[in-house]
Design brief:
The protein is of the alpha+beta class and about 100 residues long. The chain contains four helices and four strands, in the order βααββαβα. The chain is elongated. The mean pLDDT is about 90.
């Protein structure tokens, strides 16, 4: 399964404003591949949108819980909001629609 995860925090929990939080973020960034392998997660992309206090993760796992564990260990600081959605490539969606056939068939 492919997942899109949004990790958001407020300024009160931002390592940019609170340097004491930065070591945990640095460690998570540096160990992301090792952590992902240990949990059976394949990272496709991790993107930082610093001005908006958001990190996006695109990853693949067999189960939602694997991705949830990765996210909670990747950035273990308090997050104001975590959203996780199962997603798929539009080419896969198109293939599924074609397999279903025309409506009413």
């Amino acid at each position: 399964m492919l997942f899109h995860v949004t990790l958001g925090h407020d300024a009160a929990h931002c390592p940019g404003y609170h340097p004491e939080l930065m070591p945990v973020w640095i460690e998570g960034f540096e160990k992301r591949e090792e952590l992902a392998r240990g949990l059976g997660v394949k990272i496709h992309s991790i993107l930082n949108a610093a001005p908006d206090h958001v990190v996006y993760v695109i990853g693949e796992a067999d189960r939602p819980m694997q991705m949830a564990m990765f996210v909670s260990q990747f950035l273990p600081t308090e997050q104001a909001e975590i959203k996780m959605n199962a997603v798929e490539d539009v080419a896969d969606t198109l293939a599924f629609i074609r397999e279903m056939g025309p409506p009413g068939s």
